[in-house]
Design brief:
The protein has 3 helices and no strands. The protein is mainly alpha-helical. The protein has one domain. The longest helix has 23 residues, at about 40-60.
């Protein structure tokens, strides 16, 4: 990943980098990999995330 620093504005470049890493889910993945996650717990977490995405999609598709 490459971030351009324009006019020596390092603070802005760092903010852009953090935003890109957040969008890619790097921080979430680092947090999950910090400790071992048993396969059963991992499966339950993924099912829960899928249910959350489904509810969100249904909420957005619902005409009001």
């Amino acid at each position: 990943m490459e971030i351009q620093v324009i006019d020596n504005n390092v603070e802005k470049a760092i903010r852009v980098l953090k935003r890109k890493l957040q969008q890619e889910g790097l921080f979430r993945e680092m947090k999950q990999r910090k400790f071992y996650e048993k396969p059963s717990v991992k499966r339950k977490r993924k099912e829960k995330e899928a249910q959350r995405r489904l509810r969100k999609k249904q909420r957005l598709m619902r005409p009001e």
